Amino acid sequence: MLLLLLSISFLSATCSTPAEESEEIVNPLSFSVEALTVSSEKQTENITVEAKVEWGAYPQSDWIKVSPSGGVSGSTTVRVAIAENKTGDVRQSSIEFRAAGKSYTLPVKQNYDVEAVSIADSKFLEALVAAHDTDGDGILSTKEAAQVRRIECSGKGISSMAELGVYFKAITYLDCSDNNLSELDVTALTQLEYLDCSNNKLTSIDIQRLQKLTTFDCTGNSELKSIYVWFNFTAPATFSKPDTAQYVEPAIAAPEGYELVWHDEFDTAGISSPSTDNWWYETGDGGWGNNELQDYVSGGKYKDVRIAEVSNGTLKITAQKIDGKVRSVRMNTVKGWTYGYFEGRLKLCKGKGTWPAFWMMPKNFRAWPDDGEIDIMEHVGYHENYVSSSIHCKAYYHSIGTQKTNEIHIPTATSEFHTYAVEWTDKYMKFYFDGKLHFTFNNDGKKDYNTWPFYNPFYLKLNLAWGGNWGGAMGVDESCLPTIYEIDYVRVFQKIQ
Length: 497
Prior knowledge:
The protein is mostly beta strands.
């Protein structure tokens, strides 16, 4: 009898029910949360681990730390330390828990530091959040705003959209019709293709920089008088305006005593090459007397690639390596002038080996330097932001060390537009940077062609050389290619007769 009881007791001690065995194998761990979602700041979160067996915790990213990193059966508080999120984006990872030969994942999501847009008009902000709050946090972040390409906010009672040019420069479509707008600044929205601002309270609107605009409706603005447009503007059939409004081309201020006689504003709508009515091209790769390395292409194009492109209100000369050779442009005005005030607004290119210039040569050229050369602006990439103006003639030129020149430092010459000009009369040449005189070359009055050949017609030139005796004096660095020499306008004024 005793033997029988001992046998029953032994069996009871060594056997468990199938349900109990299954629970221990399938679910040895549980957590107080299903996932962790936290803000961008550095922080520590506590979670509770309920365990029936020994376990270990293994963060899957180095921005997550856990303590303790393991435990035994029972209840354990685990501290999860999360580093500050400086990535500017949501990041996700996990903590892997291992127990009884199995793995269990606890997801971890950390938001980024949200910088909200600052919009003064509450109704405009409400419309933006409703349409573009992609993560659903009730805030329109600057990152979300940067992704916006289309704004539709018709009939929302909006009185101001002053922040358009701050946060939404990349938009291509804007419908702000049927609101209460008395002002609308779209000058920074150069990618706009569609603009409907009808039925507001506008008195003027400036679309000069909007050369991509194909559809424009400003009807229903009963007080609208002026629509400021680009040069040589012709209204497309898809442009609608009230009868009270007039298209107004830009006015160009002339230096005192001068009048505008020629200009190219490079304001042709769309993408094109410079007008052949205004410019002709020199071509070839023979070194151009300076051991230059570029090939100047015909018509501003090499095969199907535009080297000289007019778009968004500027001319862009882009030096780039194609088919084993650096291709560039050397373009000249069809017309020539004797005396005048010659001005260009330019943003120069970066890169060792670049040599952009804005200069003049005689129409009836026979020999250099005898017939003269006028360099309004020259810049070499290895000496960035130092710009020179010079003249050359038989008595004064660099090869014999007698050139007449002056160099100035312009800290933003390669990052911003500046004006460069020469006032050329029969008595002197005065060279200007942003309207400031920096160099004067006087006619000595001797009527000597060797010292003053500057009484014949000269034409204007724009080119971007690569390498050469000056541009390549410190070598060239092709890693800067392609590089862009950008011209906003070129203007010629002559004295009022």
